[in-house]
């Protein structure tokens, strides 16, 4: 009882601090071309402990893998209530990687890939977790949660919550401190890169099904996909082998002392360390590549992120398009086509500039609201949630 | 264009120096009289004109304080860069510590002089500017060390050549199609060349710090301007001509001082709004002028007629590149490094422009949207579409604008005139008829 | 797997069996070919489903032919014929996959997809009455002719107890059961996802064709070493 009160108090204090931070920004930051950005950074930073360190919600504790390290208790959201039914944490459509030690929620892509095992019956999954329902049921839950969240917030997750987004914004800020300009792709290249997401989703979907063929169809298509074999062990979640978030999280936690580096290195295999549970040469190389490119081209990963693509599929295309709740709206008359929105957009979205008013949300837009912040005409661009305006463009010239 | 020497005027058509001297003195005298008279008329229409307007009256005198200031600055080594059109990037000029002055001509009498070189059918602003150069009338044009001309319309294109005989002219060629990637790239290259020219002339390198302070200075000016706009949205606390004068003086005045004075004026006007001290009765028909530029002093013909007519009209907003368009769009900078600032400046001067010199897929919807939103914000009762004879571009857009404004049920009146005083009577009759119609509509 | 005689004689049971095998073994086996084919021809959801449907109908036709042959000529009783038969049908299937892949690759190089700056029309190598509809059918046909174990068992058990018409109908029902498989949806989803990337349709087409070719080659090698 006392513990519960203690935990509730802790939660109230933490939420209160965050709200105070938000209010402080809204009131004291006079520069109206920056305050939404500060707000967004605050919320992104606030979500890091929420997603990874499990410091907010508690006191349920599941023992995490002891050899992996001394992370703060793994506090999986919902795990206590859902138990063996859905024990890996609530699905959130951000890159909240499954692999590092401290976790509260889980990345949707990992869940979609790994809940193929076991498919038809309850049974043992990875990491010793025992599921009391079948893979199909778990996949249905994951898909349901993903669709619901995509409809409610859309790619707001990408702009305001995703930790990898924070990483890329940090890279941008580092570049800005050195007074270096950013680079842009040509419009055609940019559109092609944005469309690459869907090809990546298709490719990994098919590869997952092929690797999981034994579990789903009972027929092994590729050798090594039986339980306990090489491909099964290391490549069952094929996207996670190339995702740059995994090495980022693992490196961060290892350097903070929460994960045991020896164990991390031990769990790699292959001649070039290309396969493994945590850090491999492959995903490290991808992380380095994405980092270097993101230094020049803003929010580079967001343009090819398959999770972003999934959210976009369930938010921006019919029939989901009409039920989507969070939208960016433009009042056509007030638009002078000054092009500021097109220029400041980190992912180089041009539809906000080109479309003629009304709903201008697009699949490439991460709802970072930089365009709304920088539009110098009052009330021209707005963020509407269920029809109500939350943020709108203001006459920021007045604040100079 | 290359710098031309004074002696290199191979094809320039000259006027005898004695005649030039006589004409200059004559027109100068007339002009001074016209300036004083305009100000008197404005004071008469608005009896309790605020004291702060005195400052703007002074600056409006071409041959007075401001000319002296610029001369003194020149002697101290500052450079003066003139520009004929709103496409010239003021921020770049300010960042190089030079003085920007607009040299478009508003003198009627010099237009006749221009007729000696170019046909009567040419735009009167162009003819007037040529005439002004022939007799060295405009102090700002004379004091300019270089001129920025933009090749927007036929008149401007040839004017650049003609002025090039007398002064170093830097041309800017805005692409006729604004929104393709190649146009933007081309426009940025044009501005880069301009920047190099400015740096060479002034001997100052435009660093990112200087550019930043120039942009921020213009932001403050835009802030003051928007305040003035907001004040005009309610019942009239300031007569249109005075507001137009305030806006126009920003084109040759010291921007910092102008901003300060405008802010003072706005605080006073806001106080008057609270005290309900209207400049004219609140039910006066509210007029918007759109079209070719109306330049001080002689071309104040139309505003004078509107605001002194019986029934009186008040000009609440205008869509003129010599007026409310000048400071309307701010430069939106994302990251304060040289690249982004330069791109921001380049885009600000090209993309939101409502000038009809472009071909756009959506039919210059920029301008239509601007007019529609202003009609709504300022509760405009009627629009006067003002075109100087010879301007094809504005004349050709009339039908489209009329159709758009008809949908808002706002009457549009096409008024074309020239740089002459002789048709004042005619225009007066037409304007009064239009205002009568507006008045009766307002009463309904 | 041994089929009890009573069940084997029931039409409904055969159909159900076809459904079960269709949604598991057949989907799994045909998945790589169908998805790379759909990637190759640049289809959207509807056309992806249609392509899969036509592929499936090729298989059903193959099963029907086999059933008719088995019923009339009782050929498959002879085990010594089975191995060379498998070898040659596998070889045929491999070669056909290879040819279809090469065909898509060549056709893709020569066809022009309208690309004007921003908007690119996706590569549409699909025509309802043309080479590619037939190639899906032929691929399905040759795949079906490679007798898979459940089909073999069905044929063997049906021989002893039925007339030639019976074995034809039984295999036809079995085939129809396998045709209604999740492969249709998977094919449609693949087409839908890839259609969201029209600017990259040339590349997805090439990759799909290449994968098809590689699969064909691996089957040929498999067949030769059998």
Residue windows where pLDDT falls under 50 for at least 5 positions of chain C:
none
Largest sheet of chain B: 4 strands, parallel
> In percent, how much strand structure appears in the residues of chain B?
5-15%
What is the CA-atom radius of gyration of chain C, in angstroms?
A: 19 Å
Total strands of chain C: 2
Distance between the termini of chain C: 22 Å
What number of domains of chain C?
Answer: 1
> How do the helices and strands follow one another from N- to C-terminus of chain C?
HHHHEEHHHHH
The level of helicity of chain C is over 70%
How many DSSP H or I helices of chain B?
17
| Number of distinct beta strands of chain B | 8
Largest interface: A-B, 28 and 35 residues
Strand order of the largest sheet of chain C: 1-2
- CATH architectural group of the largest domain in chain B: 3-Layer(aba) Sandwich
The rough form of chain C would be described as globular
Rg of Cα set of chain B: 21 Å
For the sheet with most strands of chain C, the description reads: 2 strands, antiparallel
Descriptive report:
The complex is a heterotrimer of chains A (400), B (444) and C (226). Chain A is an alpha+beta fold and 400 residues long. Chain A has 19 helices and ten strands. Chain A starts with a helix and ends in an 8-residue tail after the last strand. In chain B, helix 4 links the parallel strand 1 (80-83) and strand 2 (99-102). Chain B is globular and about 60 Å long. By secondary structure, chain C is an all-alpha fold. Chain C has one domain (5-109, 123-224). In chain C, 78% of the residues lie in helices and 2% in strands. Chain C starts with a helix and ends with a helix. The model of chain C has no long low-confidence stretch (mean pLDDT 79). The chains are: A alpha+beta (400), B alpha/beta (444), C mainly alpha (226). The interface between A and B is medium-sized, with 28 and 35 residues.
């Amino acid at each position: 009882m006392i513990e519960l009160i203690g935990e509730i108090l802790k939660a109230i204090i933490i939420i209160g601090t965050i709200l105070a931070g938000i209010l402080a920004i809204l009131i004291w930051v006079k520069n109206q071309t920056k305050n939404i950005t500060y707000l967004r950074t605050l919320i992104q930073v606030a979500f890091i402990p929420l997603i990874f360190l499990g410091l907010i919600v508690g006191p349920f504790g599941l023992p995490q893998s002891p050899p992996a390290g001394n992370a703060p208790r793994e506090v999986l959201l919902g795990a206590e209530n859902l138990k063996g039914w859905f024990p890996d944490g609530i699905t959130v459509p951000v890159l909240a990687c499954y692999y590092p030690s401290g976790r509260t929620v889980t990345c949707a892509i990992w869940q979609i890939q790994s809940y193929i095992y076991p498919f038809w019956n309850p049974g043992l999954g990875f990491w010793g977790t025992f599921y009391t329902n079948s893979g199909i049921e778990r996949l249905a839950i994951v898909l349901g949660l993903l669709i619901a969240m995509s409809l409610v917030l859309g790619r707001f997750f990408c702009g305001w919550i995703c930790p990898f987004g924070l990483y890329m914004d940090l890279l941008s800020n580092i570049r800005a401190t050195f007074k270096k300009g950013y680079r842009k792709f040509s419009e055609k290249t940019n559109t092609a890169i944005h469309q690459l997401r869907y090809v990546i989703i298709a490719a990994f979907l098919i590869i997952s099904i092929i690797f999981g063929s034994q579990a789903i169809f009972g027929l092994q298509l590729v050798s090594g996909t039986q339980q306990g074999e090489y491909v099964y062990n290391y490549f069952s979640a094929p996207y996670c082998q190339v995702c740059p978030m995994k090495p980022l999280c693992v490196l961060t936690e290892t350097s903070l002392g929460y994960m045991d580096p020896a164990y991390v290195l031990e769990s790699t295999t292959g001649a070039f360390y290309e396969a493994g549970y945590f850090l491999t040469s492959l995903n490290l190389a991808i992380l380095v590549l994405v980092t270097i490119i993101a230094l020049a081209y803003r929010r580079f990963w967001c343009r090819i992120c398959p999770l972003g693509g999934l959210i976009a599929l369930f938010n921006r295309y019919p029939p989901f398009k009409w039920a989507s709740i969070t939208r960016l709206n433009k009042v056509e008359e007030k638009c002078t086509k000054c092009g500021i929105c097109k220029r400041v957009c980190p992912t180089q979205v041009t539809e906000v500039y080109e479309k003629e008013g009304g709903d201008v949300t697009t699949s490439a837009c991460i709802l970072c609201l930089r365009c709304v912040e920088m539009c110098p005409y009052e009330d021209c661009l707005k963020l509407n949630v269920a029809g109500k305006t939350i943020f709108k463009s203001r006459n920021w010239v007045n604040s100079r | 264009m290359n710098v031309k020497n004074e002696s290199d005027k191979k094809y320039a058509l000259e006027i005898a120096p004695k005649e030039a001297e006589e004409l200059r003195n004559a027109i100068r005298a007339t002009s001074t009289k016209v300036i004083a008279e305009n100000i008197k008329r404005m004071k008469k229409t608005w009896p309790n004109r605020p004291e702060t307007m005195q400052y703007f009256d002074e600056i409006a005198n071409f041959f007075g304080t401001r000319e002296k200031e610029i001369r003194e600055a020149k002697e101290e080594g500052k450079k003066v860069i003139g520009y004929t059109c709103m496409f010239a990037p003021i921020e770049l000029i300010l960042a190089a510590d030079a003085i920007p002055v607009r040299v478009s001509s508003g003198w009627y009498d010099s237009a006749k002089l221009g007729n000696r070189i170019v046909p009567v059918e040419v735009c009167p602003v162009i003819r007037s500017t040529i005439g002004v150069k022939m007799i060295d009338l405009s102090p700002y044009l004379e004091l300019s060390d270089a001129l920025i001309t933009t090749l927007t319309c036929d008149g401007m294109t040839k004017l650049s050549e003609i002025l090039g005989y007398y002064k170093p002219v830097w041309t800017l060629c805005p692409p006729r199609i604004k929104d393709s990637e190649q146009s933007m790239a081309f426009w940025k290259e044009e501005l880069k060349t301009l920047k190099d020219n400015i740096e060479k002339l002034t001997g100052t390198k435009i660093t990112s710090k200087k550019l930043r302070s120039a942009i921020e200075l213009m932001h403050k000016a835009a802030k003051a301007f928007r305040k003035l706009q907001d004040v005009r949205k309610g019942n009239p606390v300031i007569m249109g001509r005075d507001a137009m004068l305030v806006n126009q003086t920003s084109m040759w005045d010291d921007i910092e001082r102008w901003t300060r004075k405008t802010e003072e004026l706005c605080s006073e006007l806001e106080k008057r709004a609270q005290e309900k001290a209207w400049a004219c009765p609140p039910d006066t028909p509210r007029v918007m002028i759109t079209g070719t530029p109306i330049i001080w002093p002689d071309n104040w013909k139309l505003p004078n007629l509107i605001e002194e007519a019986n029934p009186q009209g008040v000009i609440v907003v205008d869509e003129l590149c010599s007026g409310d368009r000048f400071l309307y769009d701010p430069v939106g900078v994302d990251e304060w490094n040289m690249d982004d600032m330069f791109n921001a400046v380049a885009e600000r001067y090209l993309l939101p422009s409502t000038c009809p010199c472009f071909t756009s897929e959506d039919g210059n919807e920029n301008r239509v949207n601007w007019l529609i939103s202003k009609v709504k914000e300022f509760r405009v009762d009627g629009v006067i579409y003002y075109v100087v004879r010879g301007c094809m571009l504005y004349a050709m857009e009339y039908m489209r604008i009329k159709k758009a404004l008809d949908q808002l049920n706002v009457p549009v009146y096409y008024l074309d005139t020239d740089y002459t005083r002789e048709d004042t009577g005619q225009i007066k009759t037409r304007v009064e008829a239009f205002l009568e119609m507006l008045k009766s509509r307002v009463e309904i | 797997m041994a089929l009890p005689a009573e069940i084997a004689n029931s039409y409904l049971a055969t159909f159900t069996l076809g459904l079960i095998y269709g949604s598991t073994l057949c989907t799994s086996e045909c998945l790589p070919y169908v998805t790379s084919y759909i990637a190759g021809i640049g289809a959207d959801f509807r056309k992806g489903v249609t392509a899969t449907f036509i592929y499936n109908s090729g298989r059903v036709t193959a099963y029907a032919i086999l059933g008719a042959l088995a019923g009339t000529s009782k050929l498959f009783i002879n085990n010594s014929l089975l191995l060379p038969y498998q070898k040659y049908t596998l070889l045929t299937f491999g070669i056909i996959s290879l040819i279809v892949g090469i065909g898509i690759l060549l056709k893709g190089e020569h066809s022009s997809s309208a690309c004007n700056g921003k908007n690119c029309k996706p590569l549409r190598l699909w025509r309802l009455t043309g080479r590619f509809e037939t190639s899906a059918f032929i691929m399905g046909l040759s795949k079906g002719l490679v007798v898979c174990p459940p089909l073999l068992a069905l044929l063997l058990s049906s021989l002893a107890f039925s007339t030639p018409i019976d074995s034809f109908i039984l295999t036809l029902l079995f085939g129809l059961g396998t045709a209604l498989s999740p492969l249709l949806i998977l094919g449609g989803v693949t087409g839908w996802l890839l259609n969201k990337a029209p600017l990259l349709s040339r590349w997805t087409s090439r990759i799909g064709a290449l994968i098809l070719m590689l699969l064909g080659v691996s089957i040929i090698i498999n067949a030769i070493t059998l």
